[in-house]
Specification:
By secondary structure, the chain is mainly beta. Helix content is about 5%, strand content about 30%. It has one domain. The strands form three sheets. The protein has a 17-stranded mixed β-sheet that branches. Strands 20-19-18-21 form a four-stranded antiparallel β-sheet, covered by helices on one side. It has a two-stranded antiparallel sheet with strand order 3-4. Bound molecules: calcium ion (CA). The site of calcium ion has 6 residues, from loops.
Length: about 500
């Protein structure tokens, strides 16, 4: 039905991602798709049984998985929404969601989140599925750690088993820069094996069994790898106004390297050039080149001033201003408004009002770290020819590898790193609860419209970051009281 399915169809044997059910009373399905072989799942104050998916919770309801390279080097953290909005392990597979928009895969890889009104503390938990609405926490976040730059990336391993026909999956995810370095791009590789044993599908003889694609019927070229639409992007049906920093999307163009003799399917999706937004320089033309420049790491994350426009901490607050140097070399650091206001400084009178109003708060602008990816994964024949085949269980595994590319420019830290706001304002935030730290700290993880009901991936993006950020902390911000900027905790 979709492009890739067509190309991999006609195979006598085929396969699909293993569903499995977690051994819990509410019996969540699709929870054993993600292989825990290189994941150490931590449930704070509780426990997790990787074999059965059963878990016990601590008081915080938080959890996260440390992903390693098979040799003990941590390459990323993957988490999900805090219970009762989400539960371990953080990634599930969904099959047969017939409510997706026509032409889109009816299957997906996504978070283990639950819908509002159907959270885990209620009688009938209602899991998010491929077709769930905009802003229902569908994207799992891969917080790439420094170890992913030192090694060969982040390996997420998934279990597959034989089935009828080849199966297409939409993948709902982000890759977030916690590598401590600026990045100039990324690669998504598809193959088998872990760490040094990883082989791309084409090398492993699996080019008829595994494929990535970015079908033109589903995605425009600028939709594949994007930062939040609420920060960078034109007004559309989800966003009544242009993005805070500009009307142009930020992120990367991408290229899919096709298999030999094929078009449109392959095992390598790589970024090429940036989309050319104001991310490269704010204010455009006059701002410092390091503000923001190439893809920022968490250690250099900027501060924002946010407004909770609906009184609900579970929804994204609106970004009202950001802290930075007003123009290159000026040495003037101030709260600046966005593109619509020409990046003008926030008037003193407004700042005074914000400081007095608990609906306003300062926080890190986490979405500047988080790149949403959109692509289709296809699983074809699964059989004994796979290098990862397990005869006993009649299953195999494949690996999605995310490789961050270190920035080669000589741009260093943004100048705002040495110049902090004088008296930061903390509202004693009422507590945005659905979060687990560095891997899932924004209230929204469907920054791109991944409802499966809209051909135009768009996104919101004013979420903020709730985790200590080492670069800032190293500057002694804790002593200055900036630690209270962090939401909740
Ligand atoms: Ca809100």
């Amino acid at each position: 039905m979709t492009f890739s399915l067509f190309l991999l169809s006609g195979l006598a044997n085929a396969g699909q991602i293993h569903e499995g059910t977690a051994d819990m009373s509410h019996a969540p399905t699709g929870f054993q798709a993600w292989s825990m072989e290189n994941v150490s799942m931590t449930v704070d104050g509780g426990s997790y049984d990787a074999a059965t998916g059963a878990y016990t919770l601590g008081a915080e309801g938080t959890y996260k998985g440390a992903v390693d390279d098979g040799q003990g080097k941590v390459t990323a953290h993957v988490g999900g929404k805090t219970w009762p909005v989400g539960e371990p392990p953080g990634i599930k597979v969904v099959h047969g969601d017939l409510d997706v928009k026509e032409g889109r895969p009816v299957n997906c890889l996504m978070t283990t989140s639950y819908l509002e009104g159907g959270t885990l503390d209620l009688a009938l938990p209602t899991p998010t599925i491929c077709s769930s609405d905009f802003q229902t926490h569908k994207r799992f976040k891969v917080a790439m750690a420094p170890g992913s730059l030192e090694g060969k990336g982040v390996d997420l391993v998934f279990k597959v088993s034989p089935s009828e026909g080849s199966v297409d999956y939409q993948v709902f995810q982000k890759i977030n820069n916690y590598t401590d370095s600026r990045l100039e791009g990324f690669e998504v590789q598809l193959g088998v094996g872990l760490g040094a044993d990883f082989q791309r599908a084409s090398v492993a003889g699996l080019s008829e069994a595994l494929a990535l694609s970015i079908p033109a019927e589903m995605y425009d070229p600028e939709d594949i790898a994007t930062f939040s639409h609420g920060l960078f992007g034109p007004a559309d049906k989800h966003f009544p106004e242009d993005g805070f920093f500009g009307a142009e999307r930020a992120g990367f163009f991408t290229e899919l390297a096709p298999y030999t003799g094929q078009t449109g399917i392959g095992d390598l999706l790589a970024s090429t050039t940036t989309l050319g937004s104001n991310y490269a320089q704010v204010p455009p033309e006059t701002g410092p080149a390091e503000q923001f420049g190439p893809w920022l790491p968490s250690t250099w994350i900027p501060l924002g001033y946010f407004f909770d426009d609906d009184g609900n901490p579970e929804t994204d607050a609106s970004l009202m201003a950001f802290w930075g140097e007003s123009s290159a070399g000026s040495g003037e650091f101030t709260w600046m408004q966005g593109n619509a206001q020409g990046f003008a400084p926030v008037p003193e009178a407004d700042l005074a009002l914000w400081e007095a109003d608990p609906a306003y708060s300062t926080d890190f602008i986490e979405d500047l770290l988080n790149l949403s990816l959109n692509y289709v994964l296809t699983v074809g024949t699964v059989d004994a020819s796979w290098p990862t085949w397990q005869a006993e269980s009649e299953t195999a595994t494949f690996t999605l590898r995310f490789v961050p590319i270190a920035d080669s420019s000589t741009l260093g830290a943004p100048t705002y790193m040495g110049n902090i706001p004088g008296e930061p304002h903390d509202t004693g935030d009422t507590g945005d609860t659905g979060e687990t730290g560095p891997v899932d700290s924004s209230t929204d993880d469907s920054q791109v419209d991944d409802t499966g009901t809209d051909p135009d991936p768009s996104s919101c993006g004013c979420s903020s970051q709730s985790q200590p950020v080492s670069g800032w902390a190293a500057m002694g911000l804790m002593l200055l009281g900036l630690a209270t900027l962090r939401r909740r905790k």
